UniProtKB/TrEMBL annotation:
Main location: membrane
Species of provenance: Nonomuraea insulae
Family, per entry: Belongs to the binding-protein-dependent transport system permease family.
Membrane-spanning ranges: 31-48, 95-115, 122-144, 150-169, 190-209, 215-234, 246-264
Domain ABC transmembrane type-1 stretches: 84-268
Subcellular location(s) per record: Cell membrane
Gene3D superfamilies, sorted: MetI-like (1.10.3720.10)
Pfam families given in the database record: BPD_transp_1 (PF00528)
Keyword terms of this UniProt record: Cell membrane, Membrane, Transmembrane, Transmembrane helix, Transport
Membrane topology note: Multi-pass membrane protein
Name of the protein this chain belongs to: ABC transporter permease
Length: 281
């Protein structure tokens, strides 16, 4: 074996050992984080089970065991699935509408700077309005059906997608745009090759995390006026002092949002693995 072969072999062995140590360290870190999550979760549940009743009347805070029992009852008697279907339908429709309208509006405002200057103060003012103040108005305008909940969900998504898309487009280097124009990119070609790829991280980040806002909008509408949905279940149960049912509904909402966000992240990781920006708003 020559000296060169020995050197290459030793280098490969060193790299393999370093990679093995890095993988072992990453595995230990993941185990530590997951163990911490489990321990913290268990501690919070124990505090809720045994500590909360010492500070607050038990019927107002329920307990994890009572919530779990009530959740099983709701699943078994079938009524929970209807509420889940209604709320997911409202939130899903509002989510898609909000994304589509937000993207189109942002591209129009960026393409027409004068229009952006004119609309800017109104968008900022509308963004600052508490959305809970709009919920009763939507119910009065659009009735008691699904439409006001869908529109509230779409509004919650639209504002964040609009703001993040515009921020992403404005973050594109002007020099890059000028170079593309010199190379002959115009109109739709410029948008397709420079603007959309440049704004993609901000857009994808807002799309990834705005489903929770869509759920908030749908449930907010159900709080005001509804006969079905998780928001209706929570409000009805709170009026009847069924605290375990209230917490069961909250747990279901949280689990649904986490599952949908995980699915969106999985799609994003496969389709756009380079996008890792966090949204604003």
């Amino acid at each position: 074996m020559t000296l060169r072969e020995v050197t290459v072999s030793d280098g490969a062995e060193v790299l393999a050992r370093a990679a093995g140590r890095a993988r072992a360290a990453a595995a230990r870190e993941r185990l530590l984080v997951r163990s911490g999550i489990v321990l913290l979760g268990a501690a919070l549940l124990l505090l809720w089970e045994f500590g909360a009743p010492l500070a607050v009347e038990r019927r107002y805070v329920s307990s994890p065991s009572e919530v779990a029992t009530r959740l099983v009852e709701l699943v078994l008697d079938g009524q929970l699935w209807g509420h889940i279907g209604v709320t997911l339908g409202e939130a899903g429709a509002g989510y898609l509408i909000g994304i589509a309208v937000g993207l189109v509006a942002a591209l129009v405002l960026v393409a027409v700077p004068a229009l952006d200057e004119i609309a800017g103060p109104f968008v900022a003012a509308f963004y600052s309005i508490p959305k809970i103040a709009l919920a009763p108005m939507f119910i009065m305008w659009f009735g008691l059906g699904l439409l006001p909940k869908v529109l509230l969900a779409a509004l919650m998504v639209f504002l964040i997608v609009l703001a993040n898309t515009m921020a992403g487009v404005r973050g594109i280097s002007p020099g890059l745009v000028e170079v593309a124009r010199v190379m002959g990119a115009r109109g739709g070609g410029l948008v397709r090759t420079i603007v959309l790829p440049g704004a993609a991280p901000a857009v994808v980040a807002s799309i990834r995390l705005t489903f929770s806002r869509a759920m908030v909008g749908a449930i907010l509408g159900e709080f005001i006026a509804a006969t079905q949905g998780l928001g209706y279940l929570i409000v009805r149960s709170s009026r009847q002092f069924e605290t375990a049912t209230v917490f069961a509904g909250i747990v279901v909402v949280a689990v649904l949002v986490m599952l949908v966000n995980a699915a969106i992240r999985a799609v994003e990781a496969r389709a756009l693995p380079w996008c890792a920006q966090e949204p604003r708003g």
